Amino acid sequence: MAIQLALGVDIGGTNSVFGLCDRDGNVIYEHSLPTTNYSDASDLVNDIHSNLTKEGYINNIVGIGIGAPNGNFYSGTIEFAPNLNWTGIIPLADLFEKKFTKPTILTNDANAAAVGEMVYGAAKDLSHFVTITLGTGLGSGIIQDNKLVYGHDGFAGEYGHIRVIPSGRSCGCGRNGCLETYASASGVVRSAREMESPNKHSSILNNVDNLTARDVFTAATNGDLFAQEVVEFTAEILGNSLADFVCYNSPAAFILFGGIAQSGQAFADMVKRHMEESILNIYKDKVEIRISALHDKNAAVLGASSLVWNDLA
Fold it and tell me: Which of 119, 175, 230, 305 is deepest in the core (most CB within 10 A)?
């Protein structure tokens, strides 16, 4: 009997990564294509199909899971994603389903990450948790009673766009003061450029135009005082925000996922400290801050493919 594999697809603003995974989370094959090369989503779908046919895997696929920005689980569409070439509403799940003739599940990328943690990662022992993705933006995937929370329209869990600073930084969503403008990778860079400090001579500002969040966290680890201030400021805003978010659904844990989270447990502990300082008494010492267990794996492919195994379970 041929091995059964799930096709996981992660649609990114720059690249689209796809891979084939078995039920145990082993990535059997992986490839990527530049999303920016495709003005029409159907052309990307056709090229993924051609690649997997050429590699000899097309008959092993039992289902397709897709993680995408502004992905709507109910409709299977990407809707008005600001960082993609494709404008408007894109029926991506339908395009894959017709081309591959396999059941296809689409959701937003943070939701895919949450299911990935539940199936393969740091949340195998949890029924109630929230994954916070800390990348270029900030996303969230809410698991309640082992099920994703989608809301009535498929867009529940946009924690990154809860406004935490009235009249704060401008956000790509068109509003101001959203959490992701402070606690994402791009938010860290904005903080480094905007914050005033007696340690402003910091080495991280020697090449400010090309500064990355990784640069800031590395400098902080190496003792750079200004970088440490930026990291502390980031942890404080995120921790205070999570203290409020606990009131919504009382999760057992927040799982930090993405580039910033890869800086390690020290940052998670810092976020935890600020969360506990601000949290409502009834929730004190009840909510963990965990680091994703998928960082050393292909998290994007695993998260998307886990949608298939979770649905077939």
Answer: 305
